[in-house]
Amino acid sequence: MGRQGNSASRGRATVSGSSTVRKPSPAVYRRRRLFLGVALLMVIALVAGGFALAGAVSGRSEQASSTDPTAGETASAAASPSASAPEPTPTPSATPTCNQNLVTVSASTDKAAYGPGEKPMFTLKVTNGGTMPCEVNIGTSQMEYLVTSGPDRIFSSRDCQAKSEDLLKIIAPGASETANFPWSRNRSVEGCQPVEAKPGGGGAYYIFTAKLGSRASPQAVFQLN
Residue 217: which residues within 8 A CB-CB, separation 6 or more? Predict the structure, then answer.
């Protein structure tokens, strides 16, 4: 009995031992492999999604920085001049040239009659008849002192003029500028050729006309004795 009991015990032990080391069935292996495959796919999807999300966030950050209005305002403010810089003072406009229609030219002599050997002093006077200051050229390039006697051209200051110069003067409204010329009681011709004849005396009358550019004065009459 004892042996049989031991044999039975050993037989049950053997059976029990064989049941604890039983290998899983093929279905269990398939379920495990399927689970591992699904888990691996989920891990790959999470990693790929993380990279895509990081790229999208980076792209939005770059776009936000490039379209940031504050950055544009800063650059604009840096490029613009300082608000405290003084504004340039406008250059005053030049004085306009006198309108010839508003300029008056007159002629006069220092005496009405001259004795033998006395030299007349001719005066040219230009007056601004406008309402604003203006500039007029009263240089030798523009003026002429002309002496005539009837149709006879006696003398012109331009015939033997050494230099022709400009002289610009600003004349106030109603104001005048004058220029004097001493005449030596001589004759002249264009080109400054020598003339031996002298103007006649004996109480003859002569006419002095002052010219400035295209303007001519009324006649001033004087007498040579």
Answer: 105, 106, 107, 124, 209, 210, 211
The sign one gets for the Cα dihedral 21, 27, 29, 35 is negative
Per residue in 186-206, pLDDT (tens digit) is 999 999 999 989 898 889 999
pTM of the complete model: 0.59
CA 217 – CA 107 distance, rounded (Å): 6
The DSSP letter of residue 97 is B
Rounded CA gap, 169 and 177, in Å? 8
Pairing assessment for the beta strands 134-137 and 168-171 based on DSSP bridges = antiparallel
Per-domain residue ranges of the chain: 27-78, 100-224
Confirm if 156 and 197 have CB atoms less than 8 A apart. no
What six digits make up the tokens of 154? 């006696």
Q: How far apart, in Å, are the Cα atoms of 118 and each of 71, 111, 156?
A: 89, 10, 19
Amino acid making up residue 202: G
Q: Please measure the distance between the N-terminal and C-terminal CA atoms of the chain and give it in whole angstroms.
A: 197
- Superfamily, domain 100-224: Immunoglobulins (2.60.40.10)
